[in-house]
Amino acid sequence: MPTRYMSETADKKKIQKLQRAIVDGLEDVKALDIQVFNTEGLSPLFERVIVASGSTNRQTRALAASVRDAVREAGFEKPRTEGEENGEWIIVDCGQAVVHVMQPTIRQYYRLEDLWGDVPVRLKSNEARGKAARAAAEKSNAASARKAGIKPGAAAVEAEAVSPAAAAKKATRAARKSADSVATTAAEEPKKAPVRKAAKTVKTGGGSAVPSAKKAPARKAAAKKVQVVKIGAPVKKPVPKRAAAPKKA
Question: What is the DSSP letter of 88?
């Protein structure tokens, strides 16, 4: 019983891996309306039917080629294809899964979903899986941080402190701050008052020192008188002095 259970679990994992590779190959070429159906109870030949649409013959061929490459890269045998010449409906036989790549008009006409769509399988897209993985990683990190007694934002702070680039940035900022503080303190220091010269002293006869009196500045010579003459006015000539008449004897 345990051996049978283990084999069933391994088979399920193998099928899930195969269908994941097929869906990834379809998403890489922008397939439209991807649907996966579980056909374990409908056919003993295969366990999954996958239907997808391509808008043109060129896209349907590219989708079939992408599925072949993705399946081989996942470690499975090379699939067989049919209908590539026409391109309207291409069947990719992957063993346990069969892929139908169809153009919208052909798909609407044959309606394979009504035939194989008894048990649809829900698959997450690559973007949704990425978001789920990130959310799970954040939860696990938060749980480990709580166990270690670290606050929610402390882990990021520690990571930044350990980072050499962050340490170099912090050292540069600290050096700049110290230089700025030195410059500001030097600017704020009061200027020293100029030293006053001591007044010269003169000793008197009694021996006491008396500060010498400052010499009075010499008076400037009196300015010469300048005769002011108005423009246009006749200049008055000085009247010559008459010689004194000789006295009569």
Answer: S
Mention every residue, 6+ apart, whose C-beta is less than 8 A from residue 199.
Answer: 211, 212
**pLDDT tens, 172-189?**
676 666 666 655 555 555
Query: With bands split at pLDDT 50, 70 and 90, how would you rate the model's confidence at 140?
Result: confident
> Which alpha helices (DSSP H) does 95-236 contain, by range?
104-110, 112-116, 126-148, 154-162, 164-188
Beta bridge partners of 100: 51, 91
How far is it, in rounded angstroms, from Cα 51 to Cα 164? 52
Q: What is d(CA 21, CA 26) in angstroms, rounded to the nearest whole number?
A: 9
Nearest one of 154, 183, 150, 178 to 170, comparing CA atoms: 178
